[in-house]
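Hi,

Apologies if this is the wrong queue. I'm a grad student, and the batch job for Winged helix-turn-helix domain-containing protein from Sphingomonas rhizophila produced an output file that my downstream script rejects. I'm not sure whether the problem is my script or the file. Here is the sequence I used:
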Amino acid sequence: MTSHHRLKPQERHRWCFGRCVFDEQCWTLTVDGRRVAIECKPLEILSELLLNAGSVVTKAELLDRIWPDVTVVEASLPTAIRKLRLAIGDCRPDLPMIETVTGIGYRFAAPVREAAVSSPVVEAQTPARAGKRQRLFLSTVSLGLAALVGAGGSQFVSSDRAVSPPSPYSAEQRAQIAAMRKLDVPALESMLAAGWNPNELYERGGPDALQYLLNICEWDPQHDRRKALLAARTLIDANDNIFYRNRFGDTAYSIAKADRYCGPDHPVTQMLHRICASGVRENGNRCMATYALERGERF
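Support response: The file is valid. Your script probably expects a header line. Output copied below for reference.
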């Protein structure tokens, strides 16, 4: 992998973008002056993207720098990117701070201001910048990894973090998420038949089932589009509310049509457009994102 220059402690910076400030010396992220709780990996990714603001950082480079000497599952990077976007309020699909460059990597696209922060010359490693730390893999790592993948991410036992945090999702939610990640339509149908309501949210103000499913376009740009269409149709037929707006004001349609997700030519986007335009689900403006309507856009 390509080597990469890292800032020495005395060269750490304070980065300002949007409503956010990322202080590398204190290793803190604040939004509107309030410190945001966020895991180390998304912050490490943020640091890498800011160091290369305006340029594409490939997936291979990020995997090598953030998870050195470790083989991770495919979803680890986009999962960490999603957490980072949530933390910094990157909620505008039409004007993203972090752009997905399909099939290549990510680019920090928002304007960035930086100010040098003085710090002692004596090195004091932060947990996130400690370099290639020795990781202690237990004999049960494969079993633990399999369980964590089902929970939407991956964790590793390391010398500075021996206990993984509990999953925020129930066993039923983990099964739902796993089925959506795999585009397993029979599994989705089985869970719906057993009483699963696709309008249940995975977090307050967060995505419902259909909005969560649309992440497949970012997780796996090479996914089977026919299966994605069948999965989305299955959720809609089970009365998933396509007009639901998450805390960022997005609907399933506004997410799907964004280039960083599925894009306007994806069959799921086209299906949602037909439904919104048909009048079957009332007028199309209810399918629009709140911020788009505030700009005067109409369906």
